[in-house]
Amino acid sequence: MQDELVALQELQRLDLDNLELRKRLATIPEELEALRADVSRVGELLDRERQRLGEAEKMRVDREREVLLKNELMMKSKAKLQGARNERESKAAQREIDAIRKSIQEYEQEVLEVIEVIEQYGKSISEHGAEFSELEGHLAAREQESLEEMAGIKERLKDWESQRTELTSRVPPQTLRRYERIHSRLGLAVAEVQNGFCKGCNMEMLPQAYIELQRGGKLVQCANCSRILFLREAPPSDE
């Protein structure tokens, strides 16, 4: 019976390790997908900023062109003012000059504002470009590491199959079926008893069950959680 319990404990350690390996195998692609999402997010942000930068530069060119055109109109209006034959023509020319001057000032102010926006976009693009490059490098390295890690896990899972076959051969079929039912439901199928308490559910054992466990003549299960119980052997004394 003690050999069965030892085999069950080893089987449980093996099965719990297998569960952790499979969980890890499932989380690796999720981690990579999260990294790819970060790269994509920063890449899309960079594209938007570059597009807006292009729009701002086009706007600056358009406004500077408008300033040139307005200056040409200003020269013509000034020529009209100089050639005015009467007060009415003079006032009309002066109104043109005032309107053009105001328009030039507005366009020049817009040019200054657009130049400031262009500088801001340039700085942001530089920062996000560096972040994007760093994320791409990290992703490429992590992808390679993940391939190696996944390959290692798969090898360990292959070893698990052979080790489990060897362990299950040491456990009677009925006991193995009982273990696997509990394992599939609770994960932890074999629990240690300490000071009369099942460590699987922290409930106190019935006195008779504890006596049977101490005798070691048969498998004892927890009355509360149904886990298979065992007592750890006390270390030998110095005497």
What features would you describe in this structure?
With 239 residues, this protein is mainly α. The chain has 2 domains: 19-168, Helix Hairpins; 173-230, no CATH class. 78% of the residues lie in helices and 4% in strands. The chain has 4 helices and 3 strands. The protein has a 3-stranded mixed β-sheet. Strand 1 (190-194) and strand 2 (197-198) form a beta hairpin. The two termini are 28 Å apart.
Please name the defining characteristics of this protein:
239 residues, Helix Hairpins, three-stranded mixed β-sheet, rod-shaped, mainly alpha, 2 domains
Short description:
This protein is mainly α.
CA distance, first residue to last residue:
28 Å
- Return residue spans where pLDDT drops below 50 for at least 5 consecutive residues: none
The amount of beta strand, in percent, is: under 5%
So how many helices? 4
For the largest sheet, list the strands in their spatial order.
2-1-3
Could you tell me the CATH topology label of the largest domain: Helix Hairpins
If you compute it from the alpha carbons, what radius of gyration comes out, rounded to the nearest whole angstrom?
41 Å
Shape: rod-shaped
Q: How does the major sheet shape up?
A: 3 strands, mixed
Q: Structural class of the helices, strands and pairings?
A: mainly alpha
CATH class of the largest domain: Mainly Alpha
Helix content: over 70%
Mean pLDDT score: 91
* Strand tally: 3
CATH architecture descriptor name of the largest domain: Orthogonal Bundle
- Counting structural domains, the number is 2
Order of SSEs, N→C? HHHEEHE
